[in-house]
Specification:
Layout: E1 2-8, H1 11-19, E2 34-38, H2 41-50, E3 56-58, E4 61-66, H3 70-81, E5 86-90
Parallel strand pairs: 1-2
Antiparallel strand pairs: 1-4, 2-5, 3-4
Length: 98
């Protein structure tokens, strides 16, 4: 099952999420963790739960099961309708990958 991360825009949240993530053996080769970074995490999480998404709370954010690509557009639409600023981005962009 695929999942997407929801985390707050504060870099501390990303770091906390990545600290608990099990990295693959060869993570230095094009490793990404895609997710939605939002300004209003609590509001965003509540909206997605009320829209029927199942969020699994983890340290640093939440993981959302994704079964189809159009769910990404739907999540973005739900957040945009409530003026919650979000960015779909690589959560692991701060990992050193030499």
């Amino acid at each position: 099952m695929n999942k997407i991360v929801l985390c707050a825009s504060d870099p501390t949240y990303r770091a906390n999420y990545l600290d608990n993530l099990e990295l693959p053996d060869n993570y230095m080769c094009d490793f990404s963790v895609m997710g939605f970074v939002v300004d209003e995490y609590d509001s965003a999480a509540a909206l997605l739960v009320s829209a029927g998404y199942q969020l699994s709370q983890v340290k640093g954010g939440a993981e959302i099961p994704i079964h189809a690509a159009d769910q990404l557009l739907n999540i973005r639409s739900i957040l945009a309708k409530e003026n919650i600023r979000c960015e779909y981005t690589d959560i692991a962009d701060s990992l050193y990958q030499a």
